[in-house]
Design brief:
single chain; mainly alpha; Serine Threonine Protein Phosphatase 5, Tetratricopeptide repeat; 17 helices; 0% strand; globular; Tetratricopeptide repeat protein; TPR_rpt; TPR repeat; TPR-like_helical_dom_sf
C-alpha cells in the first residue's frame, strides 16, 4: 500500500502495475479499490471509466467516506469533458458527494477543502455560496489550522483582498511547509514580489526533498528566467523537468522549452536558445511567446 501511495503521488506509471497486484491479492479491499480508481483518474483518456468505477464503489460501500470523496474527484475530472447540460446535471452530484463524505467523516479535510472550492467557484444555481464557503473555512480553522489559513487565502483572493490572501497563504506554508499546494503558492507569491532569494529557497528545498516534483523543477527554472539569476541552474532545472513524464496539471513541455530558450538567451547562448525555441514551436507552431522570443534573436 505504501509503495502504491508513493508511486501515485509521483504519478509514476509503475503505480498501475503495483495496484493491479494489490487488487489481485485483495479484490474486496475498499482501500485497494480506491487506489485502482486513483490510477484511472491519472489518465486523462479514462475519465468516463473512472467515473463508472467510482459510482460502483459508492454503491458497494455507501458508508465509506473516502469512496464519496473520490467519487467527487471523478466527477471533477469528467465535468470538463461533457456538454453544458451534462455539467449542470453533474455539478450537484459532485457537491453532494463531498457533503456526504463529510457527513460520514467530519475530519476528512481534503473533502472539506474541495467543498470550499466548490462553493466559491460554482454558480448559485448549482449550489455555489460564499456564505457556505465561509462556514467550511470556520470548520477548517477549528479542525486543521493550516488548511484554515489556506481557505482564508482562497476567500480573500476571491474577494480581491490580495494582501490578506498572501498573508494567509504564507501562514499555511509556514505551518505545513511540505504541502505541495502551499509550497507552490508560496513560491509564486515570492516570484510576484520579486523576492528572488525566498522564491529560490522554496523551490531549491522542494526539489532537494522530492526530485520527482516536476512543478518544482519548472518553477525553479522560471525563477531563474524572471530574476535573470542562476541561469545555468535554471537551464538544468528545465532539463530535469523535461526528463519527467508530462503530467496533467503541470506545465506542458512546449512551455518548458520556451522558458529554457529564454534562460539560454539571457545567458548569451543564442545558438542553444534558438534550438530550444524551435523545439517549443515544433510542439506548438502557434505559441506566440516562443515566436516573439525567437524573433528577438
Amino acid at each position: 500500500m505504501d509503495e502504491a501511495e508513493a508511486l501515485l503521488k509521483d504519478r509514476d506509471p509503475r503505480a498501475a502495475q503495483v495496484v493491479a497486484a494489490l487488487a489481485k491479492a485483495r479484490p474486496q479491499d475498499r482501500e485497494v479499490r480506491v487506489l485502482q480508481l486513483r490510477v484511472l483518474l491519472q489518465d486523462p483518456d479514462r475519465t468516463e471509466q473512472a467515473l463508472d468505477m467510482a459510482e460502483d464503489l459508492v454503491d458497494d460501500e455507501p458508508d465509506y467516506a473516502p469512496a464519496h470523496l473520490w467519487l467527487s474527484n471523478a466527477y471533477a475530472n469528467r465535468i470538463g469533458r461533457v456538454g453544458r447540460f451534462s455539467q449542470a446535471t453533474m455539478a450537484p452530484k459532485l457537491r453532494r458527494a463531498l457533503e456526504r463524505a463529510l457527513e460520514l467523516d467530519p475530519d476528512l479535510h481534503e473533502a472539506r477543502s474541495s467543498l470550499l472550492e466548490y462553493y466559491l467557484q460554482a454558480p448559485g444555481i448549482v449550489g455555489g455560496s460564499v456564505e457556505k464557503a465561509r462556514a467550511q473555512i470556520a470548520e477548517l480553522q477549528r479542525r486543521d489550522p493550516p488548511r484554515g489559513h489556506y481557505g482564508q487565502g482562497r476567500l480573500a483572493q476571491y474577494e480581491e483582498r490580495l494582501d490578506d490572501a498572501r498573508r494567509h497563504y504564507l501562514a499555511a506554508f509556514a505551518a505545513r511547509p511540505s504541502n505541495a499546494v502551499y509550497r507552490m503558492t508560496a513560491g509564486i507569491i515570492h516570484q510576484d514580489a520579486k523576492d528572488w532569494d525566498k522564491a529560490f529557497a522554496v523551490f531549491d528545498q522542494w526539489t532537494h526533498e522530492e526530485p520527482k516534483a516536476a512543478g518544482a523543477w519548472y518553477q525553479l527554472g522560471r525563477t531563474a528566467v524572471l530574476s535573470g539569476q542562476r541561469l545555468d541552474e535554471g537551464v538544468a532545472a528545465f532539463k530535469r523537468f523535461l526528463a519527467l513524464p508530462e503530467q496533467p496539471g503541470q506545465p506542458e513541455h512546449k512551455h518548458a522549452w520556451y522558458r529554457m530558450g529564454q534562460a539560454l538567451a539571457l545567458a548569451g547562448d543564442k545558438a542553444a536558445a534558438r534550438q530550444a525555441l524551435e523545439k517549443s514551436l515544433s510542439l506548438d507552431p502557434d505559441l506566440a511567446e516562443a515566436k516573439a522570443e525567437l524573433a528577438k534573436l
